[in-house]
Design a protein that fits this description.
CATH architecture: 2-Layer Sandwich
CATH topology: 60s Ribosomal Protein L30, Chain: A
Strand content: 25-35%
CATH superfamily: RutC-like
Structural class: alpha+beta
Radius of gyration: 14 Å
């Protein structure tokens, strides 16, 4: 089985040595790389606002899910990286707003920094469909 790199025109295009997402296991599993608060134009969204940054991360996740033919209900796991655990409640609001009653497995981790100093949140996800 071959893995298929995947992207979407609805997210900022990466110049790094990775794929925004990879469709694997015969097209049944989507591994979404950590998404940051960049809009499609590559500009930071929600400077200083963890909740708005989380919303943008989840919009990016959603764009990649749709590009693969999946939806948020197919997400089985999310990992959220925060630079300050004090932002946990704000990020939880954005996450609940996005997922509603769907509750994938999750991990929340505090990190000292993300790839861009202004970032407060990064979210990765795995979907099976």
């Amino acid at each position: 089985m071959s893995n298929k790199p995947l992207t979407s025109t609805e997210i900022a295009q990466t110049s790094g040595p990775y794929s925004p997402a990879v469709l694997a296991q015969g097209g049944r599993t989507l591994w979404i790389s950590g998404q940051i608060a960049q809009g499609p134009d590559g500009q930071l969204t929600g400077a200083g606002d963890a909740e708005e940054q989380a919303r943008q991360c989840l919009r990016n996740v959603d764009a990649l899910l749709r590009a693969a033919g999946a939806s948020k209900e197919d997400v089985v796991r999310v990992t959220i990286y925060l630079t300050d655990m004090a932002d946990r409640a704000a990020v939880a609001r954005a996450r609940t707003e996005y997922f509603g009653d769907h509750k994938p497995a999750a991990t929340l981790v505090e990190v000292t920094a993300l790839v861009v100093p202004e970032l407060k949140v990064e979210i990765e996800a795995t979907a099976v469909f």
